[in-house]
Design a protein that fits this description.
The protein has 459 residues and is α/β, with parallel strands linked by helices. The protein is built from 20 helices and eleven strands. It folds into two domains: 162 residues, Leucine-rich Repeat Variant; 265 residues, 3-Layer(aba) Sandwich (Rossmann fold).
Length: 459
């Protein structure tokens, strides 16, 4: 029976005892256990016997043989590791071989790591870059790595950008948790594109919105679908600019059906979430998650009536009971931990999400219906987004405010809100609600035209 204690004892007896033991093992499971539990290897450890396992049929045995070779600083093994990194049939073994080359921190490994920069596996390339960054002060290393900013793979480009081209500093001198007073609990009536020209870079912590659906409502008529997408592109570029470093943009959309004009014509379905996504990636948002908002079937329009009657293939149309909650983060080289560390411990503690939070990416929430606005956010949906993606006293933005549910919910969760709404009818609706104190407390909410908003900024 092989145990960790027995392996430790073998190591204490020297290389001869280990070699004798290894030569007597025939069962792969015993070999694997032995390799997994070798632990620390001294500088004078003779690992030549490990080379025999680099050709074992078991990829796990090859992996652990490579990992143990990587613990040795002997340059004798560099070429063998490079061969494994190039030729092993298992990608995990190949990546570990590159990692082992890097962990040796031997200047002679550079020539092997240079070769691996040409590999087709981006993860192998990234591991090779990581190994070479140990020698980043070497001008030759810099000259070889910097051109990889043009590498076709986005992971490789991201690593090179962070290491050699990032400014490393946010444009915003304002402390990360802070926001401008003139934006807090403000609702502005006007074109969001004009309004945002008066908002400084990196001013908001979270944007949650549902854009007007293409030509599906009276308030969202556009000459063409492309015009609609370009409009959203223009708005969301500005949202990106005013979002603080590393913070989130949550977009609620769904495919939309434009009804047919007559029985002689077909209806048209537009995949809005999928078509807007490439625009968002191009402007600097990083895709994080897709959440499905699932509604009860009774709450949506029935598209199944015809198929129910004839049951003929090709005529099937499912009832659309889902919408997408697409989660994006403003691209940054900083990890989320950096964002969290910007807050004091009291704010972090007070903002913690309570037990009973949703653990899946399918959120079952009933829709909300309103006599004035035909597409209203459910409060529960807003609560989840705001609680999961912001801290107490953060500034929450909605560029298409509608009936103001994002603002109302933000305030109830001790966040500030900044809303814009182009349609005067909905703006007045929010204002009326404020007077009745059922949506906003009037004293704490400011309602502005564009001109009034600009004046408030300049006071």
């Amino acid at each position: 029976m092989i145990s960790k204690e027995y392996i430790k004892e073998l190591k204490s007896k020297g290389n001869g005892a280990i070699l004798h033991f290894v030569n007597d093992i025939r069962e792969n499971n015993k070999i694997l256990y032995f390799l997994e539990n070798l632990g620390y290897l001294p500088k004078d450890f003779d690992g030549r016997w490990l080379l025999n396992f680099l050709h074992n049929k078991s990829s796990l045995i090859r992996f652990w043989a490579v990992k143990n070779i990587g613990k040795l600083s002997d340059e004798t093994y560099l070429s063998a590791l490079c061969e494994v990194a190039k030729k092993d049939p298992d990608t995990t073994v190949r990546r570990e071989a590159v990692s082992s080359l890097g962990r040796m921190r031997n200047p002679k490994s550079k020539k092997y790591l240079y070769e691996l920069l040409q590999d087709e596996d981006p993860k192998v390339v990234c591991q090779a870059i990581r190994g070479l960054l140990v020698f980043r002060e070497d001008k030759n290393v810099q000259d070889i790595l910097k051109p990889l900013i043009e590498h076709p793979n986005e992971m490789v480009k991201s690593v090179i950008y962070k290491e050699f081209f990032s400014e490393g500093k946010s444009k915003n001198e304002q402390p990360h948790p802070d926001s401008h007073d003139y934006l807090k609990n403000v609702i502005v009536n006007g074109d969001v594109r004009e309004i945002l020209k008066n908002v400084p870079d990196e001013s908001v912590h979270l944007t949650f919105t549902s854009p007007p659906y293409y030509n599906a409502r009276d308030y969202s008529i556009y000459p063409s679908y492309r015009d609609y997408l370009l409009f959203l592109d223009e708005v969301f570029k500005e949202v990106h600019r005013i979002t603080k470093e590393g913070r989130f943009f949550i977009l609620n959309t769904s495919p939309i059906i434009i009804p047919r004009v007559s029985r002689a014509h077909s209806s048209k379905r537009y995949p809005i979430p999928f078509d807007i996504h490439p625009f968002l990636i191009e402007m600097g948002w990083e895709f994080i998650d897709d959440i499905i908002w699932l509604k009860p079937e009774a709450s949506v329009k029935n598209r199944n009536a015809g198929f129910l009657q004839h049951r003929k293939p090709l005529g099937y149309k499912p009832n659309a009971v889902t919408e997408y909650i697409m989660v994006y983060r403003k691209k940054t080289e900083k990890l989320l931990d950096w964002n969290i560390r910007q807050y004091d411990s009291a704010t972090v503690k007070e903002s913690k999400v309570a037990d009973g939070y949703e653990t899946t990416n399918v959120w079952k929430i009933d829709p909300t219906f309103d006599k004035i606005h035909s597409a209203v956010f459910p409060v529960e949906l807003c609560k989840r987004v705001i609680k999961y993606y912001s801290y107490k006293d953060d500034l929450i933005f909605d560029p298409f405010a509608g009936s103001g549910t994002v603002g109302k919910t933000a305030k109830s969760l001790h966040r500030y809100f900044f809303l814009t709404e182009k349609d005067e009818k909905y703006f007045n609706y929010m204002k009326q609600k404020a007077h009745h104190k059922s949506l906003f407390k009037e004293k704490e909410t400011s309602f502005f035209t564009l001109e009034q908003f600009i004046q408030s900024k300049n006071r």
